[in-house]
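hey m, so remember when u said the tokens were messed up on ur end? i reran from scratch. heres the input so u can diff it against urs
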Amino acid sequence: MIQRIQTVWLFLVALCAAFTFKFPFYSGNMIGKDTIQRYEKLVASSNFLLLIFTVVLVGGSIAIIFLYKNRKQQLWLTIGAAVLSVINIIIYFSQTKKFIDGQISLGAILAFAIPMFLLLAANGIWKDEKLVKSLDRLR
């Protein structure tokens, strides 16, 4: 049952979340401790909370793939990961306030794709659950 479409969506979540360590969400000038402006990039490892949430998203989405025998638990964990990814985006935006000037980078698409892929995976899991329930009624 690993060949289901939600496996693809969950794998894309893990891939996008892993790429947020390399590609910046935001980049611009920031004032350092000695009041000198310096150019910085906001990536997933820039903040401790971002680091923890992103690691949980990567590991969690890979773990969710292998819960295909328990679709209800897989669905709830996928919805929980979607909520976590939205909180992750909120933390990203709160970290952008530390910059003096800058712009959202192209890598921000990865952070916004994560909740979308998680919702697509949840939709696939829900459809599988409905299909199994309808087949159980026929037996």
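this time it looks ok to me. The chain is about 65% helix and 10% strand. if urs says something different then somethings off w ur setup not the seq
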